[in-house]
Specification:
The chain is mainly alpha-helical. It has helices at about 25-45, 55-60, 60-100, 105-130, 135-145, 145-160, 185-195; strands at about 1-5, 15, 50, 165-170. Strands 1-2 form a two-stranded antiparallel ribbon. A two-stranded parallel ribbon has the order 3-4. A hairpin with an 8-residue loop joins β1 (about 1-5) and β2. α6 packs across α7. The N and C termini lie far apart (about 75 Å).
Amino acid sequence: MYLSVQTHSNQPKTQYPTTKSGGASVLLAIVVLLGLLHPVRIFAQQQRIAIVDTEKILRRIPEYNSAQKELDQLSGNWEGEVEALMMEAQALAKSYRAEKVLLTEEMRREREEAIAKKEKEARELQRKYFGPKGELFQKRMEMVKPIQDQVYNAIQDVALQRKYDLVLDRANALTILYVSEKMDISDEVLAKLGYR
């Protein structure tokens, strides 16, 4: 079977082949596509979603703020120690460059080794304090992690109580552009933790 199309000009008719069922196959494809999309829409409508702002919650907890201040002070002290070693290494290097022409080969080697040793000490101290498993990380785990765990448990309790399927953190989700305040459960979490 052919579908004929005639244009308004004097050109001959163009004929396109069609199936026996004609437009029925196109209609069937549309119906199937709509059928597939319908459950997705129903699924999305049934989800209960809430938003929480962990930064706001943590800022309202005095223990967290004092732990953060203590960590900042420790970090500052440790940075000072590392900086002092780096400055010593730089002073040794500057002195060496100024006196290099006057030194014997043996003295040069000794001074270069002293500079390298001091730089290594600074790097090791920096790693000890600020490395992935360093003292700052350990202190943070000791002081802040229990508070964060309490907040997480309170969020989970509120979510289960209110039957939320998904709770997003406004502080950590970069793609949240707008949230209705009625979806924010941060104040409920603070109340659960005993803070208003």
